[in-house]
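As a warm-up, study this chain.
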Amino acid sequence: QVQLVESGGGLVQAGGSLRLSCAASGSTSSINVMGWYRQASGKQRELVARISSGGSILYADSILYADSVKGRFTISRDNAKNTVYLQMNSLKPEDTAVYYCHARTRWSSDYWGQGTQVTVSS
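Now compare it with the structure written out below.
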């Protein structure tokens, strides 16, 4: 089992920045993908960014971003803290959504955080 706890959401003006954090606990050694999804009101949940473990020091992590956030958002992780971050810059009103942390284990089990609200005012 994996537990995910998000923090860092809030209200910000357009053009501003926020950093989301997601701390994982439990069977963290089984996680090979962590990422962020978001769901705006009335819309489907969508991938924002994810980082996949390379599996060893020989292989770099693989990072994927949604086209809508490329160049503005940066995903990173601190393995020692079992935490993944999402730095969001140049925020736009259309970034307003509930942001969910996601983790997938090597056995393809999916885990979700409780979600954190991000609201960008124009």
